Amino acid sequence: MMSTTIENPNYAYPARSKRGPSFEKAGWIFMRASGVVLVVLIFGHLAYNLIWTPGGISAIDFGFVGGKLADPFWRWWDVTMLWLAILHGSNGMRTIVNDYVHKPRIRQIALGAIAVAAAILILLGTLITFTFDPCPPTADPSLLPSFCADL
């Protein structure tokens, strides 16, 4: 009878002690916690935009978005949703790369690209959210939304 040796499926990573804090465990916990918070943020966002707003989806236009982003509560709500969604998705991509990319150099490049993309998206999204001005003072008044005349 011949015996067959099965290769260790965790060959890409060195064995670690099971005790103490672990980056993978923290990532696992983050995915669960951020998923729950994202569900609340997304459904709150949809409920406000589609149910509580008079006119529903047909009321969503540039003026609606400008008015919503003028309110600090909704600005922070949206930026928190953006940050969590990008971090949650990036952590998921990191897990996929760690599971399926076995060449260390390629894995390192892919993880670096994910981190850079996440950082750029968070930076640009935050910048846009907090610097958005629907009523720029130098713009042609005929091109501005109607609510800008009240300011």
TrEMBL record:
InterPro entries: SQR/QFR_C/D (IPR034804), SuccDH_FuR_B_TM-su (IPR000701). The keyword Transmembrane helix applies. The chain crosses the membrane at residues 26-48, 76-97, 109-132. It is found in: Membrane. GO terms for molecular function: metal ion binding. Keywords: Heme, Iron, Membrane, Metal-binding, Transmembrane, Transmembrane helix. GO terms for cellular component: membrane. This is Succinate dehydrogenase.
